[in-house]
Amino acid sequence: MSNGPIQRERDAWKPLEVSTSDRARVCFDVKGRGYCGRSSSKERMSVWSKVSCADCLAAARADEVEVA
Ligand SMILES: [Zn+2]
Question: Which of 49, 50, 55, 60 could be disulfide-bonded to 45 (CB atoms 3.0-4.6 Å)?
């Protein structure tokens, strides 16, 4: 069965998939939480070069934190 218009409509409004899963995500550690506000990630680092969480990096850029 091919996707009908309703399914296509749903797909269009579906939230974007997060590229990093909780297990793979490495957040920047801020007092036991991620910089992005998540506490679900398995690993947190206090070195930006090791951080893989896109939300942490985006938040850091927004805050003009030096991540390099
Ligand atoms: Zn994060």
Answer: 50
